Structure formats: structure tokens, C-alpha cells
Fold this protein.
Amino acid sequence: MGLPIYQVDAFADAVFGGNPAAVMPLAHWLPDATLQAIAAENNLAETAFLVPSDQQAGRYGLRWFTPLVEVDLCGHATLASAWVVFNKLAPSLTDVVFDTRSGALRVALDGESGRLTMDFPARIAQPVAPPADLVAALGAAPREVLNAQAYLAVYDSAEAVRALRPDMAALAAIERYGIIATAPGDKPGIDCVSRFFAPRVGVPEDPVTGSAHCTIVPYWAARLGRPEITAYQASARGGLLYCRHEGERVRMAGKAVLFLEGVVHL
């Protein structure tokens, strides 16, 4: 059978920026082993699969797979999936709800700016003693370390974050989904920069990570004393996120661009 596939650069204004995700709309769920095999074949940080709800228009089941595992939350592949809904599946919609392992996630399209705004759960990090294996794996000691679903390593400068050359094998041995490195922004209008490493789940460095900002944004909102945060992920591709902390939720907005569309033959 032939299945449609789209590759979308999320948190990007043009192709070759942001974070690429594969998006595959399905009529019904395929076996988990098949979904995982497709994600491994795609070899992107994430492949998203969506199935329309039989109860409500504008609502889809959504699942995300890295090349190695299914994950509980993924921002850039959600943004990419919303782009596919708004531009390919249901162009009349400007609002979509995805039912996921992390609950119902709403994405709204702003017709004027072209930004897609996602409503995600906040993941508040708590301070912890810096684990020695984490500091050694990162190769540079942060000023503080916090812990949520991922470690949050806070540095004094964006330069220090950009200069990190982590030992990926050592990071993969740490029992966390991923490790976030963050610091104050170093350019006008940018409140913070970050990088995200998740070799344990097959993603050594993720180009732009929406789920990481569920932790990054509450931290910087508290530190800066205001809810609005403009964040830049300082990977090789880079990506800009416009965010707001709203208690137990985080809103993050960005653009997305289609890179390719085709057919998967199974």
C-alpha cells in the first residue's frame, strides 16, 4: 500500500532551518512495530503519525517516534503535523486538537503572522546537586542544574552553551530522556539560548526542541520575572520560538515550511 508522507521543517522561516520532522497521515493505526520501522527508516529526530478522530472534525490522534523509541511529547513534530493539517488535510481549519500520551494538545494558526501556536504542559524543573557524570559528559560545569523529565544545565553565557562538545556515549548512559543546556540570550530580542541532547533515544543533538521549552520557558519566566520569552535554540540549523508561560501550560509559536512530500510503499 502507498501512504502519504511529508517532511516539514518546523520552527523555520525557510527550508534547511529549524527541525525537520516526517509526518504521515493514516486512516487507522498500523502495528507499533511497523510505525517504529518507518521512523527508523526515515532516520529523522521524529516521525509523527496522525489518525483522524471518528468523533470530531479537527481532532486527530497523534504519536511520535524517534528512530529508536516512541516518545511522550514532541514539539517540532506537533508543529509539523499541524502544518500538514492546515495546508494539506483540512485547509479550512485554523485550529486543531491532537490527542496524545501527554493529553490533548491544541495548535492554532495565526493567519496574519503565519505562526502556529501550540499549547503544551509545563514541566517545572527543580534544583538538584549537579551529578558528576553529567558534568563530565557535558565537558563544562554549569552554574546550576535542575531536573524535570530532562536535566536542565544552566550556564552563564550563550558562548559557553555554543562551545559545548558533549561526550555522547557518556550522556546516553545517564538515565534521563535528555539534557538541556541553556544560558541568557546574546542578541537583542533573544531572552535565552539552548541546546538539547538526547542520545539515549537516538537523537544526539536535536536541532529545535519544543518539548524542552516546556522546561526552559518556566525557568526563564521565573528568572526574568515576566511570562513572555523569546528563545533561540543554538544548534547548527537553529530555530526561534515565541513563548509564554501560563501556569501549568506553556504556549510556543513558530513557523513551518514544507521540504518534501511523497509516498511510502509498504
Remarks:
- The mean pLDDT is 96.
- Residues 41 and 67 are 7 Å apart (CA to CA).
